[in-house]
Amino acid sequence: MWTVTDSPVGELRLSEQDDALVAIEFSPFRPLGLGEPRGERADDHPLLAEAVRQLAAYFAGELRDFDLPLAPAGSEFQLRVWAALTEIGYGETASYGEVALRLGHTHVASRAVGTANGRNPIPIVIPCHRVIGSTGTLTGYAGGLERKRLLLDLEQECLQAPLF
């Protein structure tokens, strides 16, 4: 099942499988039928409705930690990288090399971390936008650098405002 929601970074298509979120896609979307099957559109599916609610709260600055069942599909290494991304705090950043070190690898693994980061199927909720270059520069983002900057700026602005 899947649904579409508006956001400050454009429309997002959310997909679930077996009551777990498996994908968030930025527009423009891939045509349905390419990649994993999504089934029918179900705007009222309980998990999808809750994911839409939490995303809206995140973008409103009212939510800093998502609480959704996730089931990203990937290799063992990718799953480890994506789990490490969830440990990067709201409004914080880490370099690809730092993520590699947190996983017990050397900085040499930063490219592999970058590749896994770029294949994150559940952006925003698994915060791949919080990973930056070693010099502090914004580098690659599947949703585009403009979206990455917007997400990072949103979190910084919300840190300055009191949480409700």
Q: How would you characterize the overall build of this protein?
A:
The chain has 164 residues and is α+β, with helices and mostly antiparallel strands. It has two domains: 2-59, no CATH class; 76-160, Winged helix-like DNA-binding domain superfamily/Winged helix DNA-binding domain (Arc Repressor Mutant, subunit A, Orthogonal Bundle). It has helices at 46-59, 76-85, 96-102, 110-118, 145-160, and strands at residues 2-5, 12-17, 20-26, 94-95, 131-132. The strands form two sheets. A three-stranded antiparallel sheet has the order 1-2-3, with helices on one face. A two-stranded parallel sheet has the order 4-5. Strand 1 (2-5) and strand 2 form a beta hairpin. Helix 3 (96-102) packs across helix 4. The longest helix is centred in the last third of the chain and has 16 residues, at 145-160. The model has no long low-confidence stretch (mean pLDDT 92).
Topology (SSEs and partners):
Layout: E1 2-5, E2 12-17, E3 20-26, H1 46-59, H2 76-85, E4 94-95, H3 96-102, H4 110-118, E5 131-132, H5 145-160
Parallel strand pairs: 4-5
Antiparallel strand pairs: 1-2, 2-3
Helix pairs in contact: 3-4
Q: Whole-number average pLDDT?
A: 92
Please state the second-level CATH architecture of the largest domain.
Orthogonal Bundle
Cα-atom Rg, whole angstroms?
16 Å
Question: What is the CATH T-level topology of the largest domain?
Answer: Arc Repressor Mutant, subunit A
Q: What number of domains?
A: 2
As laid out across the biggest beta sheet, the strand order is: 1-2-3
Instruction: Provide the structure class.
Output: alpha+beta
Helix content: 25-40%
Query: How widely separated are the two ends?
Result: 32 Å
List how many beta strands DSSP finds.
5
CATH level 1 name of the largest domain: Mainly Alpha
Largest sheet: 3 strands, antiparallel
